[in-house]
Write a structure and sequence with these properties.
The chain is of the alpha+beta class. Helix content is 25%, strand content 28%. It has helices at 12-22, 31-40, 102-116, 131-135; strands spanning 2-6, 45-50, 53-59, 62-63, 85-88, 90-93, 121-126, 140-144, 155-160. The strands form 2 sheets. The protein has a 5-stranded mixed sheet with strand order 4-5-7-9-8. Strands 1-2-3-6 form a 4-stranded antiparallel sheet, with helices on both faces. It is globular, with a radius of gyration of 14 Å.
Amino acid sequence: MVKIRTVIPIDLDQLLEIESSGFTIEEAATKEAFEQRITNIADSFFVAEVDGQVVGLINGPVIGTPFITDDLFAEIKENPPSGGHQSVLGLAVHPDFQKRGIASALLNYFEQVASAKRRTTITLTCKENLIHFYEERGYQNHGVSNSEHGGVVWYNMSKAL
């Protein structure tokens, strides 16, 4: 059974392993980035656990704009108590636990928390191969993002809450 909970500092090594399995070195969050996110935005950083093992993660700061900008990957500020747009900077599941609904469960949980805090939208960028995954969950494709993160093409996706 999958349990979703707020991230804690001791999760860091497992988070890095999951992140590196789902993203290239250029795209993946660094240890320093995760430490900053755990410290500053634990209220929007959640992990999925199976039998006490962290198997997935979702995180991102609340932002004032409808779409993600690359500066978010450098510096994270604390979230406002309500309002704004809830971004997703990372959603990843360990390869051994993929295709079991864990990513969807993390996204659903994230949306519920964001909705309770009266966020306007969930906003994220994804690669072309994941557009369908997000569209099936009610996200709209707003076309190619201005993001140059990791040197790949990203698509702006959002869902009104």
